[in-house]
Amino acid sequence: MAATETLLEVIDKDGDLILAVGIDEDPDEMTDREGRAPQELVAMEEDLWGEPGPSYGRTGHPNGDEISISDYDESDLTGQPRLQDLRSQEEELGRETSSSSRHYVRLLVSSTFLTHASPVFKVMLDGRFAEGQLTLSKQNPPTIALPEDDPDTVALLCKILHLIGDIYQRVTGKQLIKLAVISDKYNCSRSLVPWFRGQLHQFTIPATGIFDQVALDRREMSLEQVILISYLIDDNEMFAKSTETYYREKSREQIQISLKLVVDGWIQSDLVATIQNWQDYFLDRAAQIGGDVLESVVKQMNMADHEGSSYDKSSSSFALCPGHAQRLGALSAVLTLRGLWPNSNRCNKSVSGMMREWEDVGAINFHDDRTPMPVRGGTWGPCMCADRLNINTELELRIIRLEFDLRGGICLPCFKRKGRVETPAECPNMITHKLWPHCVLNAENGLGKNGSG
Questions:
Q1: Are 159 and 172 part of one and the same domain?
Q2: Long-range contacts of range 390-394, CB-CB < 8 Å, 24 or more positions apart?
Q3: CA 208 to CA 222: how far, in whole Å?
Q4: Nearest to 35, CA basis, from 144, 192, 197
Q5: C-alpha dihedral, 11 to 14 to 16 to 21, nearest 10°
Q6: Are 439 and 451 in contact (CB under 8 A)?
Q7: pLDDT for the residue numbered 443
Q8: How far are the Cα atoms of 64, 76, 238 from residue 79, in angstroms, in the given order?
Q9: Of the candidates 116, 141, 165, which is a domain's last residue?
């Protein structure tokens, strides 16, 4: 389709600038009259799905020469029918494109919206670059070419910046990542954070804030994509919740394979190692619950004389209360059967899976009341143990504590500053912790410490 025949998509009916995004399908009609692409931008690597990624270096005139508005008259600059005729087509305002793979689109936008939201566009249009020499006009708006960008993604970006469209419109994970990449390229992520949160909060569980993987699957999204998106848009809350969900729900093997596949080349490589380290830390904590409970229970017990006389613990005549012995045996058997001892193999276990197993163990009634035992004369009487064992109480307290410590996830500013953390270490006292006190990197001698103070 020729450039002059390409239908204009009106984002702002009072717009004073046209963005020509992508490559026109008709090479014979391609000229350099549509200006230059963004300059001096950060180079990106290969696209996430194996397609050539955008090269954000300086591009423009085929000969590499600077171009000026004076080189062309107004009709050459627009390369399109008179805008007054196109503006009468009200149905074009905010029009959703049926095609999901357009190669080229021309967008009528407001330079004011773009420059306020994007420092990159502000620099481009301030006069120091070729684009800045263009005369912005509502009657005959000039055109800036963005040949390396995805048309549908830039159209969605412009609609969001112009407050057009539904924040809850159906968007796939791949589309969200493309939008996050383009917003990072033009440094306008901060303006898009509320929109992204509106999209991502739909998939969180209200009671906990962690992500519902079933809901994500229904929208063709993955938890790995949420982590990447929140990283690219620099959203600490979403990054913390998505990483929390990840080290809760995924096994070590899944983290090594699935997460690395998605974030490799986009996020610093330490992310996979950091999540694995903290998952190992929590798995160790969960596996230690059984040993801690047994140790606590043993400390509660007293050895009692069968005859109920002297209280010399060094005497061989002292023995464990039969009821307590049965309960300790039952707890040990349950831990062995479920593989919950500290030295059990946890390669294919997730933190949430282990927590669910502990909740099941905690629901077992271990009959903590003291049990009658044989006394002098062959009769039965109360044992002389000082207290009840409180196995269920000890389990419940430790499960609650670990569940509390699990909350939070990885703080994005901490991660960007510190990178990989091998062991719990105190995080820098950053203002973000006043809003996010449970950062797992903000721990010292255990997790759950508030780092805002």
A1: no
A2: 390/297, 390/300, 391/293, 391/297, 391/327, 391/331, 391/366, 392/362, 392/364, 392/365, 392/366, 392/368, 393/368, 394/292, 394/293, 394/296, 394/297
A3: 19
A4: 144
A5: 10
A6: yes
A7: 43
A8: 21, 5, 43
A9: 165
Sign, CA torsion 436/442/445/446: positive
Of 225, 250, 267, the domain-final residue: 267
My answer on whether 246 and 319 are in the same domain is no
Cβ neighbours for 419, distance < 8 A, ≥ 6 positions apart = 268, 270, 274
Same domain, 146 and 25: yes
Which residue reads 């193999």 in tokens?
345
Domain that holds residue 440: 411-453
- Distance between CA atoms of residues 191 and 323, nearest Å: 65
Q: DSSP E strands: which ranges in 268-395?
A: 304-305, 318-319, 373-374, 380-381
How do beta strands 104-109 and 8-10 pair? parallel
Give the number of domains in the chain.
Answer: 4
Sign of CA dihedral 212, 217, 221, 223: positive
pLDDT in tens, 118-155: 999 888 887 666 655 677 888 888 889 999 999 999 99
Strand order in the sheet with 17-22: 8-10, 104-109, 17-22, 143-146
| Tens digit of each residue's pLDDT (9 = 90 or more) over 21-36 | 988 765 544 444 344 3
- Residue 104 is classified by DSSP as E
**What are the backbone angles phi and psi of residue 251, rounded to the nearest 5°?**
-85, 165
Distance in angstroms (rounded) separating the CA atoms of residues 66 and 76? 17
Whole-angstrom distance between the N-terminal and C-terminal Cα of the chain?
62
- AA identity, residue 82: R
Token pair recorded at residue 122: 């502000």
Helices (H) and strands (E) in the chain, counts: 17, 8
Coil/strand/helix, residue 133: helix
Query: Mean pLDDT throughout 193-201?
Result: 90
- Do 390 and 447 have their domain in common? no
Q: Print burial letters for 53-81: b (CB count within 10 Å at least 16), e (below 16).
A: bbebeebbeeeeeebebeebeeeebbbbe
